[in-house]
Write a structure and sequence with these properties.
315 residues; 76% helix; mainly alpha
Length: 315
């Protein structure tokens, strides 16, 4: 009960931040920005398929079984959609992903794959945050009072990346995962196999590539708003988004926080902060579109699937 209260408290605070940003902005500029985009916002909706494929390739790498790629992609899209609508932690898609994969592999193997995928995803986020924070010190026009915070963030997340990598290859994740799965009643027993270094390197490479591909979305939105961004522009917005997401992860889907960080990046770059808010709201619309798409695909699959594939179990 306490956890739910905390979740909704931060959801409320995020909405307050977003509301304050909208209230303080120039409505005419905001209106003209969205009028300028119009139907072209569909371009932004289409871009996420790039990094979604990268994430699906990571998931397929971790699965030691020949599952058709379109089913792996379906698992990624639907699971991410439920993660997005689950406050605090984004684990709502885990049972959905596991359930779909049990059409080909055992529930034990599916559980192992999905949790490993979550660990690799978290690790890639830490690595990306550290890299961008340190890169920002060299190429972004940061004020002096921001230099130390970015340096500290880069060092902390770099250290966490090393620790998590060591944890992934130790026996601790297996023990922790076993307890977690038993607690949430996914499975009563858990069996794991050691993760090969080659598999890990390939999986983390796909995840990192997916994060880098996130720059393509920023590029498209800049163009729709009438700007041709430089590499510094793209890195500035991505850095602010990534750092704010990593530090303020407790806010569900970064509501309010993402918009504030983008507005801050635009101010740092010398652009209108109102355009920064337009930028953030376009990204928010994209998030909502993919959440609805993922849930619709899952419900459609459940509803129209006439032949149910038996679940494989192990004794």
């Amino acid at each position: 009960m306490k956890k739910k209260v905390v979740v909704y408290l931060f959801l409320f605070l995020g909405l307050v931040i977003l509301g304050w940003l909208i209230y303080s902005m120039d409505w005419e500029v905001l209106k003209s920005s969205f009028s300028m985009v119009g139907y072209k916002i569909s371009y932004v909706f289409a871009v996420p398929i790039i990094w979604t494929i990268c994430n699906a390739l990571c998931l397929r790498t971790l699965i030691n079984h020949p599952i058709p790629f379109h089913h792996v992609l379906f698992t990624q899209i639907t699971g991410d959609a439920y993660n997005a609508v689950t406050p605090f932690g984004g684990l709502g898609g885990v049972p959905v992903k596991i359930k779909h994969l049990t059409n080909w592999i055992s529930v034990h193997e599916a559980s192992e794959v999905i949790i490993r995928d979550q660990l690799v995803h978290t690790l890639s986020g830490m690595m990306f945050t550290s890299f961008l924070s340190l890169l920002a010190l060299g190429i972004l026009p940061l004020e002096d009072n921001y230099l130390l915070p970015f340096l500290v963030v880069g060092i902390i997340f770099g250290t966490l990346s090393i620790l998590l990598t060591l944890l992934i290859f130790s026996s601790k994740p297996n023990k922790l995962l076993s307890r977690l799965l038993e607690k949430v009643k996914i499975v009563s027993e858990y069996r794991s196999n050691p993760l090969r270094k080659q598999t890990f390197l390939q999986a983390i490479s796909f995840k990192m590539l997916g994060r880098i591909m996130g720059l393509s979305e920023l590029f498209v939105i800049f163009l729709l708003l009438g700007f041709t961004p430089s590499l510094v522009d793209l890195i500035a917005v991505m850095t602010m988004l990534t750092v704010s997401s990593s530090i303020m992860f407790i806010f569900p889907q970064g509501i309010g926080v993402h918009e504030a960080s983008i507005a801050g990046a635009f101010k740092m770059l010398g652009y209108s902060t109102t355009l920064g808010l337009s930028f953030g709201l376009i990204r928010r619309a994209r998030t909502i579109f993919w959440v609805l798409l993922g849930i619709a695909l899952h419900l459609g699959y459940v509803f129209f699937s006439k032949k149910k594939t038996p679940i494989i179990t192990t004794k």
